[in-house]
Amino acid sequence: MDLYESIQKQDKEVFGALAGEEQREREGLELIPSENYVSKAVREAQGSILTNKYSEGYPGKRYYGGQTYTDQAETLAIERAKQLFGAKYANVQTHSGSNANIAMYMALLQPGDTVLGMDLSHGGHLTHGHPVTYITKFFNFVRYKMKNVETGEIDYDEMRRVAVETKPKIVLAGFSAYSRELDYEKFASIAKEVGAYSVMDAAHIAGLIAGGVAKNPFDAGFDIITSTTHKTLRGPRGGLILTRESEEIAKKVDKAVFPGLQGGPLMHVIAGKAVAFGEALSPKFKDYAAQILKNAKAMEEVFRIAGVRMLGGGTSNHLILADVFGSLGVTGQEAETLLDRVGITLNKNAIADDTRKPMDPSGIRFGTPAITTRGFKEGECKRVAELMLEALKNRSDEAKLVAIREEIKQLCLKFPVPESFV
Ligand SMILES: *Cc1c(COP(=O)(O)O)cnc(C)c1O
Asked: pTM surpassing 0.70?
């Protein structure tokens, strides 16, 4: 456990929040598929004195002096990111996945240009053109969908038809709530046919790609991969933009990130990215990535046997989207609240073409990156899935819910979050 000695002495109120979160993470089960636990080494980097430094610009080309060590840290992060994904260029400065996407749009588009992306109700992300986001005032977003929500197959014919008709500048792949692999060759060939850039937003599955258990879009000729660094990649909260080959694109990306969008980079976070990328390059990370998939399959099996409908018919990655309203008569919000009470954290989620409202949709989304970091194997994951279903089916049985809460807590205490992954 972290001691937070100085904070404890100086600021009891903030210490209270940290101590509470420490206990919550220790005793509760984290199934939100976009969350993970970072190593102590990553946290040390993030808590380091590099936060003191202004480093606007890029290694070797900064606006202020005193950059010997910031250049060292950022160059390490860049070189490791390139090696992990087989990219020729990497920009590690974006503060988040959303910023990475906005910078990518700014690099490749003029106002009024069109982006062809995944329908949001079929798994796309807010930054792929949700009307509540500011970027939709500047760019035009058109959509593709799944052809069959029971198998997860994307409608590539429709994608091509829309692409030919609307002439997008970007064909965008990637998702937040989709459980199958994409056919990157089809994306790339449609992009090529209409003269668009091909971009993969790998925010969720970057760790699976880096770990070699999911296909790398660069192998199909994609131009750019954007990502977060804190989901399956298990690094500090931040963003990443990789360019496969084109120096021209990479230069546009760098300009768009700084000075286009951001000011000074978070050098302490960039050092944390370098540490996390170093961890991801270690052989152990491949085992981690492979176990994420095995664990998701183990949970899928329990849900399948129980007859619960899963979007895409199950999972090929780290997450499952279950139609709990259709299968168990409990709404996504009710399920989220109930499972929270027994110590399982996950999120409600709209399912494809959901008839319910976004704030109380039909589905829940859950995944295995965090519990796999804890050391859970298939057996524990199967048990967690069983406990989830038991809780959902015995919603008003207080004694049962208390027993489930206790079993979850004991399971968590048996698998403390490790401090190191190498
Ligand atoms: C999480 C996510 C993002 C945004 O990342 P933030 O760091 O939260 O801004 C972007 N795209 C996809 C597909 C995501 O899942």
From this structure: yes
